[in-house]
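Support case: user asked for a sample of complex input and structure output to validate their parser. Sending the pair below.
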Amino acid sequence: MSELAWWQRGVIYQIYPRSFQDSNGDGIGDLPGISARLDYLAALGIDAVWISPVYPSPMADFGYDVADYCHVDPMFGTLDDFKQLLDRAHRLGLRVLLDFVPNHSSDRHPWFEESRSSRDDPKRDWYLWRDPAPDGGPPNNWLSRMGGSAWEWDGTTRQYYYHAFLREQPDLNWRNPQVRRAMDDVLRFWLELGVDGFRVDVLWLLIKDAQFRDNPPNTAYRFGEPDHHRQLQRYTEDQPEVHDIVRSMRATLREYGERVLIGEIYLPVPQLVKYYGTAGDGADMPFNFQLLNARWSAGEIARMIQDYDSALPEHAWPNWVLGNHDNPRVASRIGASQARVAAVLLLTLRGTPTLYYGDEIGMTDGVIASDEIQDPAERRQPGMGQGRDPERTPMQWDGALPNAGFTEGRPWLPIASTASVREQLGDPSSMLSLYRRLLDLRRGHVELVQGTIENVAACGDVLTYERRYRDQRVFIALNMGSEDAIMEAPAGVVLLSTVTSRTGQAIGEGITHLAQGEALVASVRT
Ligand code: NOJ
């Protein structure tokens, strides 16, 4: 598999650092905690960890409000802890990706403190400052993704500043070349330390309309959707100039060899794939989030796979994401049984899979009492179901220990359920064993990594497809319904099934049975 880059062959595992492993009893996960669990991750069979932000931060948005881009928050440890983590990971053959948050800083970042100090400050133009509208109100109608106007009045300098998220997260002005240089230095700082790449936060939002035109109303808005969906984000996202920025980030990474640039981008596929750029000068992987809110049906997923595959530019490498810290967990979205089917899907599709911590043990969304809500998205728009605490609860290591072995203190969020790594490790039919088998299978079958995806078909509730590489061929079948089903299959041998007893059995050509909740991978003679 040598002609592929490591991030094309590999599987990425997202760690939400507050919730992975606490080492000092403060109830919040940290870098030494992650280091202590790297053996587990290596044994699981993943290839890279992406760690959500650990930079110094007032934590208004739990680290996505960065006050210093080149340091580590004491809550998570020290820069030395990070270096040790990186070193240990590399010795185990694991890569480490950081979360780069360039769209906005914290309002406590020295850059913003300088910028807001006076209209003449040399850093004034590093952020987006505008005069009030003639009536004294905000300069235009742009809405924040955390609710309300995206403009915050600054009484000292008598202008508004723009924040796509919280008022504590002012947007940087990426049209300013000094900002671009400063951010380039940030990338280089971490690349010099040896990080293997970045997941770039809200990459598609970096540039806003130069004329600050009002966004048009969204006539399809439905009550219950986030506030900013009242408008089409015509002038606040996916502006043509953003691609120039992506190109320059990519160029910087290229100077350091095989490092990966991943973009967080929530856009329809035709717009999403533009972020690959041309001839490899864009993001290596604009995150493909389609599975996060897909209608869970064979027909829908078949269409999604085909449309995505045919929309990808020639040079583009696909990727699939099943869960992250901003969306309900897969086991809560589709149920425990289908979450096993989803695991087979994720790890047999063409492209790099990204797993969210805890999904490998089937963690479900936690239930958070209303007086314990932590997430600013829920606090600012209560009752709208926007809260992200449920999918951020602590990793469940050992059900026999207090707080599931996550902390010896009081966890910052409650433990979601009794499922745990320890209990599942010894159970061959557990979700964890399934993930380990899948990761192992992927590693041993070049066609699952490098092969084409062909014959994608939905028949009733059954989704089938094949992966082929030279004379290697596997057939995948997933029962996405709630009953037993039948399917048309080629003759082969079952390499893996969610119904463990079937593994190793032969399938004869023709109609065969697929149990409720069954997904299988079979080798097929070519
Ligand atoms: C996307 C991140 O994933 C989310 O958690 C955060 O709130 C926003 N960007 C703002 O940084």
